[in-house]
Amino acid sequence: MKNSLLKNGFYNAVGGAVRIGLGIVTIPMLIRILGVEEYGLWTLASAVVVMITLADAGLSVATTVFVSQDLGKENADSLSQTLSVTFGAMLILATFAAIALWMGSESIINFFPKLTQVQQLKAMQALRFGSLVVWTRLLQYILIGVEQAYECYGLMNLLNTFQAVLLNFGLLAVAWIGGQTVQLMQWQAVASL
Predict the structure, then answer these.
(1) Per-residue CA distances from 13 to 10, 154, 157 (Å)
(2) Which of 13, 21, 98, 149 can pair with 68 through a Cys bridge, CB separation 3.0 to 4.6 Å?
(3) Which of 23, 53, 37 is nearest to 127 (CA)?
(4) Which residues contact 56 (CB under 8 A, 6 or more apart)?
């Protein structure tokens, strides 16, 4: 048990450190390529998407807890029911959050009156693509909860780190070829899928 705890903690620490390192390397390069103004717009859209993904309502943690309990009791029927309920609930929540972001993108951007009309349009388009990011990430949280219940921290961190590498290098490539906020969010949606 103690060895498993240390090993899983190590996987979490290494995966987190790699993802933080990617951000430290990527952010200054994106600012240099995009310029401060466009990077600010990208950050605004990204921050809204991240805030909406906080709407997971603790379902990923609940999934970990209840799947772990079902596995401990070796109750296949209860495990099946738990997975059905949590996946169904998150699918509904993720779909609702994505639709709300899509439909509310204009209202959200209206909270930033100093944006030019062109910036507002870009931000709204980015948020609409961001709704797909929200949908996929919320569904990923349930899968992460299941992986944690099965104590697959190494695999979970490997997949999360791979996704972060793909996302960050993709953002740099998209920016390098002239992509801006909307194209960056499109890439984020593809990487999330």
Answers:
(1) 5, 11, 9
(2) 149
(3) 53
(4) 90, 93, 138, 141
By the 10 Å C-beta count (0-12 exposed, 13-18 middle, 19+ buried), 52 is classed as: buried
Q: Taking every pair of C-alpha atoms in the chain, what is the biggest distance, in angstroms?
A: 59
Averaged pLDDT score across all residues of the chain: 90
- Amino acid (one-letter) located at 75: N
CB 146 within 8 A of CB 63: yes
Which DSSP string do the residues of 128-179 spell out, in sequence order?
A: HHHHHHHHHHHHHHHHHHHHHHTT-HHHHHHHHHHHHHHHHHHHHHHHHTT-
CA 143 to each of CA 67, 94, 112, 165: distance values in angstroms, whole numbers, following the listed order:
11, 13, 35, 19
Q: Which residue has the tokens 């099946």?
A: 80
pLDDT tens digits for range 116-158: 999 999 999 999 999 999 999 999 988 888 888 887 777 777 8
Residue entry with tokens 């499109």 = 186
Six token digits for residue 178: 């002239």
Phi-psi sector, 180: left (phi>0), alpha (psi -120 to 50), beta: beta
How far apart CA 168 and CA 25 sit, in angstroms, is 9
Consecutive H or E run containing 121 = helix 117-149
